[in-house]
Each structure stands twice: as structure tokens, then as C-alpha cells.
Design brief:
By secondary structure, the protein is of the alpha+beta class. Strands 1, 2, 4, 6, 7, 9 and 12 form a seven-stranded antiparallel beta sheet that branches. A seven-stranded mixed beta sheet has the order 13-33-32-31-30-14-29. Strands 3, 5, 8, 10 and 11 form a five-stranded antiparallel beta sheet that branches. The longest helix has 24 residues, at 13-36. It is globular and about 110 Å long. Pfam families: CHGN. One of its GO terms (cellular component) is Golgi cisterna membrane.
Length: 979
């Protein structure tokens, strides 16, 4: 019987333990290396090694190869799978690119319209690749589908945004499978939405929530873009780490790779094209349950501000002594300062808000682009292309420019004639030093051709018509630049001058009767019977030639470069055959004129298209078609047009929203406040959400903030905090004078976060709505119904309705109030004609509590549910008055479809404490008796002169219904004359 060697094991226990540990280490190392082979692609991306790139097709799942034999087998199966990388060269082709499918000749501007295309998504017009997720083909009526893999450069949370003109969508998968792609961000769904290049924060739907990504993995992405025939076409996707203050960066080639290589596939090969929700989703209105499309106003989408009033308020005792008290005395208060009549508008400043409340009327910017601070004429003509820098140089395009020597250099003009001497060129460069006063010279002087050679005669006559064909024999020759110098010296021209003077006199009268058309600054286009001459008045001395051919004005602009056919560029090329010039502009319109003997052109016969026809010219055999560079990428910096705005009361643009406050500034201030709050209360509060922050800027003494936070108390209950705080700047008088125009300039001491004295708003103060009416039964009933709904939704009893009735005959107003469910009301009847100022004053006089708020109101108003709290927050007795900006609805618009504009000039809707209203003298009833209009500005002047601030904000969902003045107030209808 064998005995177990217990004694030997005891003696060699340490050695055995060491062997066990070494064996375990070797085993775990083997498992780690073997497992690493399955994700070899992820670790090798960007290192120039071989990797497999096999996308997932619908209904198939990628199998994880765990053996070297499987990897070798996949490496040699190129014929069975065109998606397998077998060489270093092929692998590099997958990197830095994304698949691009183009669907041309399809009208519309929404992505839903793109999905209606018969050939979408299987049969695009063009299959190509893209090296950056920012493309601007400079074309019209097309759709794009861009897809591939995204490779994050770090582990962590990212935020994505998309910008485009017109609609676009960005889909991202949670892994490399297209089946898991979900819509992340988008620009519009109705086709009316668009953004400027690099504008990543215009719409709420543009920016995503945080997305966690791992750098060792790849993620399938997909972009859909639709462009109509207007605007500056572009689409770009930006990303940034989910950290405050960081800007978006366009996703570059280093972080993308191909989904599949389509270079060797036929157009009818579609099995490799991914099928996703993005390519097959159907909108609700296309199904059986046909619904009304949602309006494009971002203000209609839910916002935490709208229902923040329903969250329980934090215990006021928790806020005592959190911050040290400080004196609040802003420099912009104009107490006892003489203000001219109606000039109080100049002393009203706007507040900054965070986060974006989307009060900007983006849905109205299709007609009104005043927000962008650009001339409407400029935007209509040139668009936003100046904000984009194309990645490819456009030096190989035909471009006209004068060099420093005064010579006109024209590059890339290709001549298909036997000799250069027969060239009749198309540009006239005017020299002010050469021309006589008020004289336009038209000289047919010979020009000097420098450094050129005459191309050989084509081997076949038909070859001369295929100038845009890259396969043409002459397309292999390098482009030869032609330099057109100054005209010959004056002595050589003298013998021809006498003959030309007679011709000039005959032309002078004809030119006087027509006007030049400016093509671009300093360059004018003159139209004669048979020729169009371009005159550059900006050059300081150059050659003068005469054109015998028609020139397209758009030809003078450098068009986008193309990678195909660089020798003979299609876009904007000029082919000269004898004396025939052929041009084409961006829109594909082409013009060809041939006049070999200067014979008069025949008039168009019946049935032919005249020169003034608005129909598009059909392409004819031999005419060059416009070439589009679908791979044209560009660079753009994130455009924050809010930086161009100031806090002055802008009376020019009525579609812009509230000013935006920088995120970094908010985070810095709230971090200090939360630290002080938890220090005072033992760390029981956790910040859940920043609901609203409003800043009134005073760069000399300090900024005032209204902070509204959603907090978690002791990990159990959610409370809201809404308080004014003050960031006091300690500066000397010299510092105030020198730094008054800066926000955070260096000071002698760090800013002090403190609690401003006498700047606390009352949460339960009574609000009185004062409304004068006369013979407006339908609007009075609507107003009462809105007040009933306000009470029903908010459960707030602390408001009162005061209606002053000027002998209404169309309804019993008092009876309607008695039957309503409003918490309290007062009905006052006054005889005589309607007087708004007198009616408001009568209503205010009935209020006994001088420490309550008066809201001077209009009858045709739609109130948001948070109107009561908004009035209370922005009215502080002895300090603040409130003049919210209302949105005037257009004719036919409603609160559910709010088309209109902000009433930036009106101050008729005004909230103020009763004590302050009495202090300034109330309404001016003497001057504004039987008329209204101007009484609000006059009241504003007196409010400011008494040292009150006027808070000016655009309120979400605060509308003024459209109505006409017909039949209102004291108007009398004219009697119809009977014949």
C-alpha cells in the first residue's frame, strides 16, 4: 500500500507553493494573450498593421476567431470576401475614410424626403469615400449617406453635434453592428431647419447627451443629409469630451475607417450595403395613423423651466448665512439722472441665461436672418461659404486676377486650335491710367503670349468637342498657363487709333443707354448685341483686349476642384476652338457662341429658345457636363454667433432669443456656491440639475446672478433653490474706469461671492392682473378661461384678476367672472370711451396692499404656466421691475404653431410692486386720455429715473394673439353708401 509522502511535502512546501504560483501565472498569461487575438483589430488600429475589417450584415453575427488558423484562413480569402484586408496597402485604404453614397437629382430638404427616393438606399448615383466628416459639394438637390466606423481617441464620455444645410441626422451604434444604430442628433425633420457652418448649438436636437466610448473599440455610425436648391450646402459632425467649456471639433480622418471597400464592386452589387433603421425608418405621417407634423419651433419642446414651479421649495432657514451679506449697488442704475422723452429704451439691458432656453425663433430665420449680422443681400448671393476653409486648394481652377506688375494672368486655359494667333480672348481689363475720362475703350490689339506652345492638332476632328473627357488624348498633357501682358506700346497702336475713334463714337451712345451689371466688387459686365465684356475697374494698369464671345458671369468665380480630370477641369472650364468659347457655371447652365466671321447672328426662329428664356437648356451632344466634387471636405471652427451680441436692448432683430451665458462661468460660480451651501448644512445637498441661471452684467462692480437649482436633500427628497447671489469685484476707482468693459479682468482682490442685501424675492406674494376692456366679448372669455386653466394647473391661489370695463355691450363681464373658477377677481365699470392709461390706473387704485405686485396686462395674451413665478422672481420691491418680451403671433398662427416675432419695442406688459408704482406717479392719465401708444415708454422713463432696474427677458410660450384693430375700442364703422 502506497503511502502519501506527507513528510517530504512538509519539507518542500515552499518549493511546491512557488511552482503552483508560477504555473498559475503562465496559465493566466496564456489566456490573456489568446483572448487578445480576438480584438486584434481594435489594438492595431492606427499602428499600420494588418487587421480584419469585416462589417456585420443584417441577420449575421460576427464570429470571434480564437485561433491562428482562423486568422490565416481569413487573410487568404480575398475572393470570398471583398471586405477582408490582406495586405498593408489595403489596410491603409480602410483607415481615414468613410463610405459616401450620393443620391442626385432629388428635390426637397428633409431626410424623410430622401427616404422616399426610389433608389435609396441600395442604388446611389455615386459610390465614393470621404476623408473627414465635413463635406460641402457646392451643389443642389441631392442627398448623402455617409457610413463607416468611429474610433474614439480616449476612453470616456463624449458629446456629439451635427450641423448642416438643410436637414441631417447622425446615427451611432453601441458597437460595430449597424443593427444597433440609434438616432443620436439631428438638424430638423420638417425641411425648414438649417444651420450655418460650424453652428453646433442652434437647435436643441443638435447636441447629444453624454455617450460613453472605449478607445479599443470601434462604433458604426451613419449620417444622412438632404440639400435643396437654396443655401450654402454643408454637413459636418463634431464631438468633444463631455466636460464644460470645451468646443466641438470636426471628426477628422484619424478617427474613422471604411465600412467596406467598394472600389472593385459593380453598381448592382448591393449585398454589402448596411441596412439600418436610418435607411428604412418611416415617419408617423406615412403610416395609417396620419398625424399633423410637429411645428419647427424649438420653444415648443419641453424644458425644465416650464414646470420647475411644481418642485417643493428648499427650507429658507437652510439658506441663512450661507454667503456673507454685501451691498448691491450696480453702476447701470440711472437714479436722478435726467432722461429725455422716450429715451429710457437706451438704458435697458438684457440678461444672459444658461442653459439655452431656445427662445431664438430659428423657424423664422428662413425669411429673417438678422441674427447672423450679415447683409441679407450678401447672404443671398454668397451664403456662408466664407466661414468654411476648403481642404483642397483650388489653384487648378480657371481664375482671373491681376499680378503685381499689372498683367492679367489667366491660368488653365486650354486651347484647341492650330495656332495661338487665332485666339480671341474674353476678358477686358480696364486701366484708369490709360483711359480717357468717361471713356470706355474697346481695342482689338494683339496680345503677347508668353511662355506658351501651340498644342498639336487633334488626330480626329471629333476629338475637339470632347474637352471634358479625361480619356481624351490631349487631357494627358499638362495645363499650360497663358500670360496676357499689357497692350503693345503706344507707337504701334497709333496707326490704328484713328480708325477706332469713329467706332467709339458710334458705341458711346449705345453704352450710355445701358447700365453695367456688377459681378463682384470692381468688376462690371457690359452687355452688347452680341458680346458680353467684363471690365475690372480695380486694376492699376493692365492689358486691354476685346472679346468676340459671350462670357458667363459665374465663370469668373473659382469653382470647386475635382480629383477626376484635373487636366481638363469640368467645373468652370473654358474651351476655345477657333473663336468659339464654351463656359459652364455651377448650376450646369452652359452657353456656347461661335462667330467665325463676325457675321450678324440670326434671330431665333419659331420654336427655338430665346436668350431670355427661363427654361433650362437641355444638354446637347459634345457639351461638357458639370463635374461635382463629392469628396470636397472643409475645415471650420465652431461658430458661436452669440459672441457677436451685447446686452444692449437690440431693437433691430426681432427673431433672436435671450443672450447665452458661458458654461464655464456658470460652473465656476455654482461650484463655489454649492461648496458654501454644504459647508453651512453639513453636506446634505447634491446638485441634480442646473435648471436656470440668469446673469445681469456689471463689469465695474460685479455680476448679479439668479440661480435656480434642483437639489437632492439627504439622498431622499428633491427640492428647488431659487436665489439671487452677487459676485462682488473689489476695485479702486481707477480700476473701475479702466476695466469697466470687461467681465473678469484682473483686480486688486479676488471676487467675493456674497448675498446682496435687499434683493430677495417673495415666493408667495400676491400678483394682480389689471386689464381694461371694452366690447371684446370673445377675447374676455378667452382671458378668463386662460386664468382658470392657470389656477387649475398650478394650484396657485395668490393671484387676482382686475377687469376695468368701459361699458361693454356684447357680454356681461361681471356675470362671466362670477361663474368662473378663478381664485379671486374684481370687476370695475367705468363710463365713457376706452382709455387704457385711465383703466390701468383705476385698477391699481383698488389694490389695498402696497406690498403686492401689479402686472399691467393686455387682453390678447397667452400665458405660460410659470408666468406667476416668473413675475415674482423678477420683481423686487424697491429694486426690480419686470418687462417680459412677448412674442407676437402672425396672422393664422397659434400657440401650437407659433410663427411670429418678438415685440422688442413694447413695454406694455409690465410688472412692478404697488409701492413702487405709486412712488413713480402711476400712469400718465392726463396726456394719454383718448389714445394709447407711447404710454408704456413714458412709464419706463419714470421707472428708470426713480432708480429701479428693469429686467428684460424673452419668456418661453408667452404669446400675443393676432387680432386686427377693426371694431375695437372707440373705432366707428363707416356706413355703406347706397346707390
Amino acid at each position: 500500500m502506497l503511502r502519501f509522502p506527507v513528510k517530504k511535502i512538509r519539507k518542500q512546501f515552499k518549493l511546491l507553493l512557488l511552482l503552483v504560483l508560477l504555473t498559475s501565472a503562465v496559465w493566466f498569461t496564456y489566456l490573456h494573450i489568446n483572448q487578445g487575438k480576438t480584438i486584434k483589430l481594435h489594438f492595431n488600429y492606427g499602428k499600420g498593421r494588418l487587421f480584419l475589417s469585416e462589417p456585420i450584415r443584417p441577420g449575421h453575427h460576427k464570429s470571434e476567431d480564437t485561433s491562428d488558423s482562423r486568422e490565416d484562413e481569413a487573410a487568404v480569402s480575398l475572393l470570398s470576401s471583398a471586405l477582408t484586408c490582406v495586405s498593408l496597402t489595403l489596410c491603409r485604404q480602410f483607415k481615414g475614410q468613410a463610405n459616401l453614397h450620393v443620391f442626385e437629382d432629388w428635390c426637397g430638404s428633409s431626410t424623410a424626403q430622401l427616404r422616399k427616393n426610389l433608389h435609396f438606399p441600395h442604388y446611389p448615383h455615386t459610390r465614393t469615400t470621404l476623408r473627414k466628416l465635413a463635406v460641402a459639394p457646392k451643389w443642389k438637390n441631392y442627398g448623402l449617406r455617409i457610413f463607416g466606423f468611429l474610433h474614439p481617441y480616449r476612453d470616456g464620455d463624449f458629446q456629439f453635434s451635427v450641423s448642416s444645410d438643410d436637414n441631417s441626422e447622425f446615427w451611432l451604434s453601441s458597437d460595430e453592428s449597424p443593427l444597433n444604430a440609434r438616432l443620436l442628433v439631428y438638424v430638423g425633420q420638417l425641411g425648414t431647419e438649417w444651420t450655418a457652418p460650424g453652428e453646433f448649438s442652434k437647435f436643441r436636437s443638435q447636441s447629444s447627451k453624454s455617450v460613453h466610448l472605449i478607445s479599443s473599440r470601434r462604433y458604426y455610425f451613419e449620417i444622412l443629409h438632404k440639400q435643396d436648391d437654396k443655401g450654402s450646402d454643408h454637413v459636418e459632425v463634431g464631438w468633444r469630451p463631455f466636460l464644460p467649456g470645451l468646443k466641438y471639433e470636426v471628426i477628422d480622418s484619424a478617427y474613422i475607417s471604411l465600412y467596406t471597400d467598394e472600389s472593385n464592386l459593380k453598381m448592382n452589387s448591393v449585398d454589402h450595403i448596411p441596412q439600418t433603421l436610418a435607411s428604412h425608418i418611416r415617419l408617423p405621417e406615412e403610416g395609417r395613423g396620419r398625424s399633423i407634423p410637429q411645428h419647427g419651433a424649438d420653444m415648443l419642446k419641453p424644458d425644465p423651466r416650464d414646470t420647475f414651479y411644481s418642485t417643493p421649495m428648499i427650507d429658507p432657514s437652510r439658506l441663512e448665512n450661507v454667503l456673507p451679506a454685501c451691498l448691491y449697488s450696480p453702476t447701470y442704475v440711472v437714479k436722478d439722472f435726467p432722461i429725455a422723452r422716450y429715451q429710457g429704451l437706451q438704458f435697458v439691458y438684457l440678461s444672459f441665461v444658461y442653459p439655452n432656453d431656445f427662445t431664438r425663433l430659428t423657424h423664422m430665420e428662413r425669411e429673417n436672418k438678422c441674427f447672423y449680422r450679415e447683409s441679407p443681400i450678401y447672404l443671398e448671393k454668397f451664403g456662408f461659404y466664407k466661414y468654411m476653409k476648403m481642404d483642397e486648394e483650388e489653384d487648378d481652377r480657371p481664375f482671373f486676377f491681376p499680378n503685381p506688375d499689372g498683367k492679367l494672368i489667366i491660368t488653365n486655359i486650354y486651347i484647341h486650335t492650330r495656332t495661338v494667333d487665332t485666339l480671341s480672348f474674353i476678358v477686358v481689363l480696364m486701366s484708369p491710367d490709360f483711359l480717357d475720362e468717361e471713356e470706355v475703350v474697346d481695342v482689338e490689339d494683339e496680345v503677347e503670349i508668353v511662355g506658351t506652345q501651340s498644342p498639336k492638332k487633334p488626330s480626329h476632328p471629333s476629338q475637339t468637342s470632347h474637352t471634358s473627357d479625361p480619356s481624351h488624348p490631349h487631357s494627358k498633357s499638362a495645363p499650360t498657363p497663358i500670360y496676357i501682358t499689357r497692350p503693345r506700346p503706344a507707337k504701334e497702336r497709333e496707326r490704328d487709333r484713328e480708325r477706332e475713334r469713329e467706332q467709339r463714337r458710334e458705341r458711346r451712345e449705345e453704352r450710355a443707354s445701358r447700365h453695367p451689371r456688377e459681378v463682384f466688387p470692381g468688376v462690371f459686365l457690359y452687355q452688347t448685341r452680341k458680346t458680353t465684356r467684363l471690365v475690372n475697374l480695380g486694376a492699376k494698369g493692365g492689358g486691354i483686349t476685346r472679346s468676340r464671345s459671350l462670357v458667363s458671369a459665374a465663370q469668373l468665380w473659382p469653382n470647386p476642384p475635382t480629383k477626376e480630370g484635373k487636366t481638363f477641369p469640368h467645373n468652370g472650364s473654358i474651351s476655345i476652338q477657333g473663336e468659339s468659347v464654351q463656359t459652364s457655371d455651377k448650376l450646369g447652365r452652359e452657353t456656347s457662341r461661335s462667330n467665325p466671321d463676325n457675321d450678324p447672328e440670326p434671330e431665333p426662329e419659331e420654336g427655338e429658345m430665346s436668350d431670355y428664356s427661363y427654361e433650362e437648356v437641355e444638354a446637347r451632344p459634345g457639351w461638357a457636363e458639370e463635374s461635382i466634387n463629392w469628396q470636397r471636405t472643409f475645415s471650420v471652427n465652431p461658430m458661436d454667433f452669440e459672441l457677436l451680441r451685447s446686452d444692449w436692448n437690440d431693437l433691430r432683430c426681432n427673431v433672436s432669443g435671450n443672450l447665452q451665458l458661458a458654461e464655464s462661468e456658470v460652473v465656476d460660480v455654482l461650484a463655489q456656491y454649492m461648496e458654501k451651501l454644504n459647508e453651512r448644512n453639513g453636506g446634505i445637498y447634491t446638485l441634480l440639475r442646473i435648471v436656470n441661471v440668469e446673469k445681469r452684467r456689471d463689469s465695474a462692480r460685479g455680476n448679479r446672478y439668479l440661480v435656480e437649482l434642483e437639489l437632492m436633500e439627504r439622498g431622499r427628497s428633491v427640492v428647488r433653490l431659487s436665489e439671487y447671489i452677487y459676485l462682488l469685484l473689489h476695485r479702486s476707482r481707477q480700476g473701475e474706469e479702466s476695466l469697466e468693459n470687461t467681465d473678469f479682468a484682473p483686480a486688486s482682490a479676488p471676487p467675493l461671492l456674497c448675498q446682496p442685501v435687499m434683493l430677495q424675492w417673495r415666493k408667495d406674494v400676491m400678483v394682480h392682473f389689471v386689464v381694461p376692456v371694452k366690447n371684446q366679448a370673445r377675447w374676455v372669455q378667452q382671458f378668463i378661461s386662460d386664468m382658470e386653466n392657470l389656477h387649475l394647473q398650478t394650484k396657485d391661489d395668490n393671484f387676482n384678476i382686475i377687469i376695468v370695463d368701459f361699458e361693454s355691450e356684447d357680454m356681461d363681464v361681471e356675470q362671466a367672472l362670477r361663474e368662473s373658477t378663478v381664485p379671486r377677481y374684481e370687476y370695475l365699470r367705468r363710463e365713457g370711451n376706452f382709455e387704457r392709461s385711465a383703466g390701468l390706473q383705476i385698477g391699481v387704485d383698488t389694490i389695498e396692499d402696497s406690498h403686492s405686485i401689479v402686472f399691467l396686462c393686455d387682453l390678447h395674451i397667452h400665458f405660460p404656466l410659470n408666468i406667476l413665478e416668473s413675475i415674482r422672481k423678477h420683481c423686487v420691491e424697491g429694486r426690480l421691475a419686470f418687462a417680459p418680451i412677448v412674442m407676437r403671433l402672425s396672422c393664422g398662427s397659434s400657440p401650437q404653431a407659433p410663427d411670429g416675432y418678438w415685440e422688442v419695442n413694447g413695454f406694455g406688459l409690465f410688472g412692478i410692486y404697488k409701492s413702487d408704482f405709486d412712488k413713480i406717479g402711476g400712469m400718465n392719465t392726463e396726456e394719454f386720455k383718448d389714445r394709447w401708444g407711447g404710454e408704456d415708454w413714458e412709464l419706463l422713463d419714470r421707472v428708470l429715473q426713480n432708480g429701479l432696474e428693469v429686467e428684460r427677458l424673452r419668456l418661453r410660450n408667452f404669446f400675443h394673439y393676432y387680432h386686427s384693430k377693426r371694431g375695437m375700442w372707440n373705432t366707428q364703422n363707416k356706413k355703406t353708401l347706397k346707390g
